Amino acid sequence: MLVIMDAAAETGLQLNQAKCEIIMDDFTLISASSTFSQFIRTKKDEMLLLGAPVIKDKAQDTAIRQKIEELDRAVQRLSLLRPHDAVSLLKNSLAMPKLLYLLRTPDCSGNRLLDEFDTKLQTGLSKVLNVDLNGDQWLQASLPVRNGGLGIRSAQTLAPSAFLASAASTLTLQQSILPDSISLLEDPSVTYVETKWSSLSGSILPAREEQHVQKEWDKPVTENHQALIMSRAVHATDKARLLAAGSPHSGDWLHAPPIASVSLRLSDEAVRVAVVYRLGCKACEPHSCLCGKAVGARGLHGLSCRRSGPRHQHHHYMNDILCSAVKRAQIPAVKEPTSLLQQDGKRPDGSTLLPWARGKPMAWDVTVPDTYAESHIARQPNTELCPSHIIFVPVAVETAGTWGQSAIELVQEGDRQTHN
User: Fold this and answer.
1) In angstroms, what CA-CA distances link 94 with 73, 74, 88, 146, 285?
2) 142 and 172, same domain (yes or no)
3) Which of 351, 335, 281, 273 is nearest to 310 (CA)?
4) Are 127 and 76 contacting, i.e. CB atoms less than 8 angstroms apart?
5) 20-53, pLDDT tens digit by residue?
6) How many domains does the chain have?
7) 3-state secondary structure 51-120
């Protein structure tokens, strides 16, 4: 410091002592005439470096406590917004993204305040969505969307993966800075967190060349928790729900930005129902349907009730969207063509008027089977529906969000032709 002060005239750099810190435990050693007398005095357990606590003590607790307070304030404000907007902000900005830097810098994995953060997050999510979440439902909600969750990550679950990935990515830099007598020693904090991670994942450590990637640490943990939730599913309905939640594209609505001008914002009740069906929460009070059948607390009967108006509306909406997408690819199409089939007069939901592929027109038929119906049987394409000179594509999307492979391929092909 004295060297810097002496070189001030030559370098033009003036040291502002009022902004400088001295870190030590006993400040009585600093006299009034000392060079450090004007420095900010910070104890070791309160030490911060680039905004991150260095020692796992008071400073870390203070930093996490501040994040809890920020989350509480954010939840109170999010409750004033539409649920779709609130969930999107919580998932992508105001929950784990706000905490991730803190999880990656010091070792926070054993801090009891992370449990308080998760509890606040669970309570806030319930408030925003108007959904009651129990232990397993919150565990599923905290999984990534690809694993059947809502992508609202748990701090306790993510902390070991975040720290270990950060430690591995900076290991080479640490070794280049520190002397060999220190850099070659095993870091006890890394060893401790690896043990915590192993208990969460039930897996061996990732390959050394992949340890700098947080996803490689996080993936075994989330898959282990996903398997744990599946093992606790007693009823066939819950197993079907979990399999559907983890299927490709069933959670795409959670990634879509809630932009009302392009009809991407879901209504409040649509978001609540989508979350309820995905997590297996209580949807309504048990009652009797107009058709005479009993409706349970999960409200699944409405998905297959023959007197359910929205069920038929959704089928027509899907067919309208599909027909519009085909036309957008510059291929004329019609809905329910009457002259396509000469044998039995059956009509598919739509067909193209020009060749779709291999010089043949394409016909499609939309079906929305109920994932939870007791009589649900996997429907196979009817090879006799269309003659050989027509390409027939069954478009099956279950009520729980699972897409049939042919439906996925059709949408991808339509997107490719639209952008060509």
Assistant:
1) 10, 7, 9, 21, 33
2) yes
3) 273
4) no
5) 888 887 777 776 667 777 778 888 777 888 888 8
6) 3
7) CEECCCCHHHHHHHHHHHHHHHHHHHHHCCCCHHHHHHHHHHHHCHHHHHHHHHCCCCCCCCHHHHHHHH
Stated length of the chain: 420
- Beta pairing, strands 294-295 & 362-367: unpaired
Which two tokens mark 133? Answer: 């979440």
Shared domain check, 410 and 318:
yes
The answer on 155 and 63 residing in a single domain is yes
Provide the Cα torsion 236, 241, 242, 248; round to 10°: 130
| pTM, 2 dp | 0.81
Name the H helices within 236-344.
236-245, 268-279, 309-328
Angstrom CA distances, 188 to 46, 103, 112, 191, 379, stand at: 21, 17, 20, 5, 56
Residue 339, domain extent: 309-372+381-418
Q: How many Å separate Cα 286 from the centre of its chain?
A: 31
Kindly tell me if the per-residue pLDDT of 241 is higher than 70. Answer: yes
CA distance 307 to 313: 12
User: To which residue do tokens 């308080």 refer?
Assistant: 116
* 256 in any annotated domain: no
